[in-house]
């Protein structure tokens, strides 16, 4: 399984963004998963996970989007492994008659599939070690890493007709401001929002830390 993505439209001359519905849903899938874990309601591998004390609510970041666009324009087959930056990649061969929004819808389904896989497989531990990490849950680990507070994505159509006439490879890259770190906690277990890092504060409705 590969990975995820988004992209935003700049409105007029100002720094305000409007997320297209499929992109908004990708962000919502991230924050919904994070919220469920933070509140202690998420069940993975038949076990309810402990609530999270320090899980940030994700927001969109233009600089990460710009970085994602620059990288995805190279039509990569793997993530760039940029130091400190989290990444997820989604790639699929599609009929060129499929419009971009439809392709993005398919990638939205991919993010939901990562969540479903995590729900089935779970983690061995809240500490990210080799026993906990697997290719099947790697995307979910990045999606839920507590200290990650922002993301940005880009997409590109690649290799038009190289594999099959009328087909292209649709690639989407998402970048995250904080990458997961080996041998650290995926999130801090404890009462919901009880350890929000300054200057964030608890958003009671989501159970996530906001303000960064």
TrEMBL record:
Record's keyword annotation contains Signal: yes
UniProt protein name: SCP domain-containing protein
Keyword Signal part of the UniProt annotation: yes
PANTHER family listed in its UniProt record: CYSTEINE-RICH SECRETORY PROTEIN-RELATED
InterPro entries: CAP_dom, CAP_sf, CRISP-related
Pfam families given in the database record: CAP
Organism in which the protein naturally occurs: Caenorhabditis briggsae
Signal peptide: 1-16
Domain of life: Eukaryota
Family matches, as CDD domains: CAP_euk
Residue ranges of domain SCP in the record: 21-180
Keywords: Signal
